[in-house]
Design goal:
Layout (H helix, E strand, L loop, with lengths): L6 E7 L8 H18 L7 E8 L2 H12 L7 E5 L6 H6 L16 E9 L1 H8 L6 H16 L8 H21 L1
Parallel strand pairs: 1-2, 2-4
Antiparallel strand pairs: 3-4
Helix pairs in contact: 1-5, 1-6, 4-5, 5-6
């Protein structure tokens, strides 16, 4: 039996950019949750929700300066709600998803956080990955969602390889499912 976690993706476009249809983001989110759930051997079954905001380069630069102390525009930022678990804690818990132990809100929904993407900045990096602009937005969205789920490529080379592997696998599967 294949279990799909229901996911709500709220999209806020503050740029009026040409974005892929919402169904692509939902498919990518569902595939991410499915693969990460399998990876973490989780039996967690709940509804999840997240927001993805598209902003201009000036706005993401200001956010990057406030959040990370880096005064430069970036293509993506993630603002997770849940703290990542230690490796030993994640092996002991069955409700874990990825590297977080999600908490439900009063309505029973797990709010994962917010992903912020600067489409103009993202388009400049798309060719480096062999993507067109729309594909690269989905690729970055998956990257951001993995961060919301506790994955971090900046902690170690091993974590970077794991996150890159998951991201590539999810992207290729999500592209086939739409």
């Amino acid at each position: 039996m294949i279990f799909r976690m229901p996911i709500n993706v709220e999209i806020l476009d503050h740029t009026r950019s040409a974005l892929p249809p919402k169904r692509f983001f939902i498919a990518a989110a569902a595939e991410t949750l499915r693969i990460v759930r399998r990876e973490s051997r989780s039996n967690a079954r709940w509804e999840a929700s997240l927001t993805v905001s598209f902003v201009n380069s000036r706005s993401i630069r200001a956010m990057n300066r406030r959040a990370r102390g880096i005064d430069a525009a970036t293509d993506i930022l993630s603002f997770p709600i849940h703290e990542p678990l230690s490796a030993s804690a994640s092996r002991r818990r069955f409700s874990v998803l990825g590297k977080i132990d999600p908490r439900r809100d009063p309505a029973g929904v797990v709010r994962l956080g917010e992903i912020v993407i600067a489409p103009v900045k993202a388009a400049k990096g798309a060719g480096e990955f062999g993507h067109d602009a729309g594909e690269h937005l989905i690729f970055l969205f998956i990257h951001g969602l993995l961060h919301l789920l506790g994955y971090d490529h900046e902690t170690s080379a091993q974590d970077a390889r794991k996150m890159a592997s998951l991201q590539d696998d999810i992207f290729s599967r999500a592209a086939r499912s739409v």
